[in-house]
Design a protein that fits this description.
With 189 residues, the protein is of the alpha/beta class. It is 38% helix and 21% strand. The chain starts with a strand and ends in a 5-residue tail after the last helix.
């Protein structure tokens, strides 16, 4: 049975981080549900690109209350919306507690702070959001992706490929991650 991931899409999300991560995970054999925070309607992202969720977050959770990974894309407005959602907070806490992967890229680790998730863990984020990451975390600079137990964070649009590869490796193994990396010409070209 393939691993499952839930990517939560909110208005103002960073589209590259969303699409690259979903695409890579699907290439890696992970069943990904792109769930709209506010429903199943098209979502206007940070660079005025509209993405269409597979279904609403409510429907995704009704069908499957727990996934192998819950992933938050960045984008300042999108991250703020994720930070304000009690549904997202509950979901992140439940997944963290059960040892499932909880991942965020760019500004989205600020949602961890807002919901009290991943306290005491090593995390990274987009540089301008560093000051929003409280002393409850160990902030890491100079690494594209930071993994601390089941918590995965990354820096921004330019690190989305390595974020995706890391998630593939954690969910389906190093060999599959290497196949995806080779097939996409991320390195070794």
């Amino acid at each position: 049975m393939s691993k499952s991931a839930l990517m939560i899409l909110a208005q103002g999300a960073e589209e590259m981080e969303t699409v690259i991560t979903v695409d890579m995970l699907r290439r890696g054999g992970v069943t990904v549900t792109l769930a709209g925070l506010d429903g199943s309607s098209p979502v206007l992202c940070s660079r005025q690109v509209t993405l269409v969720p597979d279904k609403s977050l409510a429907d995704a959770l009704a069908e499957k209350p727990q996934y192998d990974a819950v992933i938050l894309p960045g984008g300042l407005e999108g991250s703020e919306r994720l930070s304000k959602s009690s549904v997202v907070g509950t979901l992140l806490k439940e997944h963290e507690k059960s040892g499932k992967i909880v991942a965020a890229i760019c500004a989205a680790p600020t949602a961890f702070v807002a919901h009290g998730v991943a306290k005491g863990k090593r995390v990274t984020s987009y540089p301008s959001t560093k000051d929003k990451i409280s002393s409850d975390y160990t902030y890491v600079e100079g690494e594209r992706v930071v993994v601390d137990g089941n918590i995965v964070t990354s820096r921004g649009p330019g690190t989305a490929y390595w974020f995706g590869l890391t998630l593939i490796e954690l969910l389906t193994g190093k060999e599959k991650a290497q196949q995806v990396e080779k097939g996409m010409l991320i390195s070794g070209y």
